[in-house]
Amino acid sequence: MERIELDFPAARSTQGRALAGVVASGDLEVLLEASATARTRVQVTTSVDGMGHLWRAVLDRVLGDGAHPAVTLEINDFGATPGVVQMRILQAFEALEHAHG
Asked: Which pLDDT band, with edges at 50, 70 and 90, does 60 fall under?
Protein backbone atom coordinates (compact mmCIF):
# COMPACT_ATOMS: atom_id res chain seq x y z
CA MET A 1 0.00 0.00 0.00
CA GLU A 2 1.20 3.48 -0.84
CA ARG A 3 -0.18 6.83 0.27
CA ILE A 4 0.28 9.87 -1.97
CA GLU A 5 -0.66 13.45 -1.07
CA LEU A 6 -0.92 16.19 -3.70
CA ASP A 7 -2.16 19.78 -3.78
CA PHE A 8 -3.65 21.84 -6.65
CA PRO A 9 -5.06 25.35 -7.12
CA ALA A 10 -8.86 25.71 -7.25
CA ALA A 11 -11.11 28.32 -8.86
CA ARG A 12 -13.99 28.71 -6.44
CA SER A 13 -15.65 27.43 -3.30
CA THR A 14 -18.50 24.96 -3.23
CA GLN A 15 -20.58 23.02 -0.72
CA GLY A 16 -21.35 19.41 -0.01
CA ARG A 17 -19.96 15.94 -0.55
CA ALA A 18 -20.00 13.35 -3.31
CA LEU A 19 -18.97 9.74 -3.91
CA ALA A 20 -18.11 7.95 -7.15
CA GLY A 21 -17.05 4.36 -7.68
CA VAL A 22 -16.30 1.47 -5.37
CA VAL A 23 -13.13 -0.15 -4.10
CA ALA A 24 -13.03 -3.45 -5.94
CA SER A 25 -10.70 -5.34 -8.24
CA GLY A 26 -9.38 -2.91 -10.85
CA ASP A 27 -11.46 0.05 -9.69
CA LEU A 28 -11.39 2.87 -7.20
CA GLU A 29 -13.62 5.12 -5.15
CA VAL A 30 -13.44 8.89 -4.99
CA LEU A 31 -14.77 10.67 -1.91
CA LEU A 32 -15.09 14.41 -2.44
CA GLU A 33 -15.79 17.04 0.22
CA ALA A 34 -15.95 20.83 -0.15
CA SER A 35 -12.95 22.68 1.28
CA ALA A 36 -12.78 26.12 2.89
CA THR A 37 -9.39 26.77 1.29
CA ALA A 38 -8.66 27.93 -2.26
CA ARG A 39 -6.87 24.64 -2.92
CA THR A 40 -7.75 21.08 -3.80
CA ARG A 41 -6.02 18.52 -1.65
CA VAL A 42 -5.80 14.92 -2.85
CA GLN A 43 -5.00 11.89 -0.72
CA VAL A 44 -4.50 8.67 -2.68
CA THR A 45 -4.27 5.27 -1.03
CA THR A 46 -3.31 2.69 -3.63
CA SER A 47 -2.58 -1.02 -3.65
CA VAL A 48 0.08 -0.44 -6.34
CA ASP A 49 3.41 0.78 -4.91
CA GLY A 50 5.86 3.02 -6.75
CA MET A 51 3.37 4.78 -9.02
CA GLY A 52 3.49 8.28 -7.52
CA HIS A 53 4.82 9.76 -10.78
CA LEU A 54 1.87 8.30 -12.70
CA TRP A 55 -0.64 9.58 -10.16
CA ARG A 56 0.93 13.06 -10.39
CA ALA A 57 0.66 13.01 -14.21
CA VAL A 58 -2.99 11.87 -14.22
CA LEU A 59 -4.05 14.31 -11.52
CA ASP A 60 -2.16 17.17 -13.21
CA ARG A 61 -4.20 16.47 -16.34
CA VAL A 62 -7.51 16.44 -14.45
CA LEU A 63 -6.90 19.13 -11.80
CA GLY A 64 -3.85 21.10 -12.92
CA ASP A 65 -5.74 23.91 -14.65
CA GLY A 66 -7.35 24.96 -11.35
CA ALA A 67 -10.78 25.40 -12.98
CA HIS A 68 -12.57 23.08 -10.52
CA PRO A 69 -14.05 23.91 -7.10
CA ALA A 70 -11.95 23.74 -3.92
CA VAL A 71 -12.35 20.26 -2.44
CA THR A 72 -10.62 17.50 -0.59
CA LEU A 73 -10.44 14.29 -2.61
CA GLU A 74 -9.85 10.96 -0.95
CA ILE A 75 -9.06 8.33 -3.55
CA ASN A 76 -8.95 4.65 -2.60
CA ASP A 77 -7.43 2.68 -5.48
CA PHE A 78 -7.29 -1.02 -6.24
CA GLY A 79 -5.31 -0.95 -9.49
CA ALA A 80 -7.50 1.32 -11.63
CA THR A 81 -6.29 2.52 -15.01
CA PRO A 82 -5.64 6.25 -15.60
CA GLY A 83 -8.85 6.46 -17.66
CA VAL A 84 -10.92 5.11 -14.78
CA VAL A 85 -9.22 7.55 -12.38
CA GLN A 86 -10.15 10.51 -14.56
CA MET A 87 -13.70 9.23 -15.08
CA ARG A 88 -14.35 8.70 -11.36
CA ILE A 89 -13.03 12.15 -10.41
CA LEU A 90 -15.21 13.80 -13.05
CA GLN A 91 -18.21 11.73 -11.89
CA ALA A 92 -17.68 12.97 -8.32
CA PHE A 93 -17.53 16.60 -9.46
CA GLU A 94 -20.67 16.08 -11.54
CA ALA A 95 -22.52 14.51 -8.60
CA LEU A 96 -21.51 17.48 -6.41
CA GLU A 97 -22.72 19.94 -9.06
CA HIS A 98 -26.10 18.19 -9.44
CA ALA A 99 -26.61 17.99 -5.69
CA HIS A 100 -25.89 21.71 -5.18
CA GLY A 101 -26.38 23.21 -8.65
From this structure: very high
